[in-house]
TrEMBL record:
GO terms for biological process: DNA transposition. This is Putative transposase. Gene3D superfamilies: Transposase IS200-like. One of its GO terms (molecular function) is transposase activity. The lineage of its organism: Bacteria, Bacillati, Actinomycetota, Actinomycetes, Micromonosporales. PANTHER family: TRANSPOSASE FOR INSERTION SEQUENCE ELEMENT IS200 (PTHR33360). Residues 14-134 form the Transposase IS200-like domain. SMART domains: Y1_Tnp (SM01321). It comes from the Bacteria. Pfam families: Y1_Tnp.
Length: 138
């Protein structure tokens, strides 16, 4: 992945961090049209920029979305996720009144859980072998 994407540098570190995030609607309600998904992509792109992250890829279906996010090590992924879900839910409700029927008694749009997977780098087996083969001070 390092060949596909530039390594970033901070004050005290060099990094290349990507996360695959998946958010599912509450009760797997089939909420989203293509228009909703385009809107959500832009909202989530804006939220990522506020966190100094980049939304590299976005896609979804009527009841879930996938995001590929490049983020710096100073960002707590859980805080980014909470902001992405909260802001997108609030803005979608504001700008698309027809989705309010999925917010039963003011419930959230998104399920309380989410998937987050780290992306890129060598497979764990290769890293394990590399570390195991390092010379120990003797």
């Amino acid at each position: 992945m390092a060949d596909d994407y530039p390594v970033r540098a901070g004050r005290h570190c060099v990094f290349l961090l990507h996360a695959h995030l998946v958010f599912v609607t509450r009760y797997r309600a089939q909420v989203f049209s293509d228009e909703h998904l385009r809107y959500l992509e832009q909202v989530m792109r804006d939220v990522c920029e506020q966190f100094e992250c980049e939304l590299v890829e976005f896609n979804g279906e009527n009841n879930h979305v996938h995001l590929l996010v490049n983020y710096p090590p100073k960002v707590a992924l859980s805080k980014l996720v909470n902001s992405l879900k909260g802001v997108s839910s609030r803005y979608l409700r504001r700008d698309f009144p027809e989705v309010r029927r999925y917010f039963w008694r003011g419930a959230r749009l998104w399920s309380g859980s989410y998937f987050a997977g780290s992306i890129g780098g060598a497979p764990l087996s290769v890293l394990h072998q590399y570390i195991e083969q390092q010379n120990r001070p003797g």
